Amino acid sequence: xxxxxxxDFIPAVVAGDRVIEVADLLEPIPRLRPQDVLVGLAARFxxxxxxxxxxxxxxxxxxxxxxxFRPPVPQPGKMVCMAGNYMESGTIPEALDVDAxxxxxxSVIGSGDTVVLPDAPAEVFxxxxxxxxxxxxxxxxxRASDALDHVFGYLNFMDVSARGINPNGNNSFWWQKxxxxxxxxxxxxxxxxxxPDPQKLDIKLWSDGELRHDFDTSDMARPISEVIEWxxxxxxxxxxxxxxxxxxxxxxxxxxxxxxxxxxxxGLGRLSVxxxxxxxxxWVRETVAEQEAREGTSH
Length: 299
Hints:
The chain is an alpha+beta fold.
């Protein structure tokens, strides 16, 4: 099932090229915010799955191009992002020490929205294409063997990063990761029943039609189950939280004013965002791998 929020955060399911509003079916969920609807659905999916599937099958819906897709997780309680979790097609000989960071929930935007590059002394602003995992069941100190039972679904996650802002001489995740608009997600969540194997998904990202990221989730140093085990050993994960599972850094490239950046993971739809930079800064249009080849260096 593909679950989305559209227009004024109306709950919807997506079937083929149709979008079907389902707010009436989710009325039993107590809510003050759109996030409450997502949390309630994730935690009680077994209860709502049948009626939602019937709506996707029987209701007429609207054309996909007639709606605005909003962030499918409007305000996650936590976004835990893995810091280096790929073998990068064999260029990293062994798994690095496991590490992660928290990204501000306020950075979230949806497909069709705009990444705004801040007036900050960054060396470059990078896109990072990642598979996002949406938690559906509270997870605290879970074992890897049970970890996927705590997942509601998967989505496209773009981790935008500002590089080289080091006011205290340190490479700080705070200055890199949590600016407003630096967390594009969507356009929808695909529930686990429609993702047979999340470790066999292609991840591709384009900037103005130029392919940059092109890798597979089978290249993860630590699979999703182990990531959830490790993260939940330190912090409790709640329904509606997101884990971003890392990227292949060889495909990182600059984001700059006027570009359209698109991310597509097998079966998860295509996330598309515009980029705006009021300072009109420019960088060489090349990936990290291309830069290293040009300079004769390697990471």
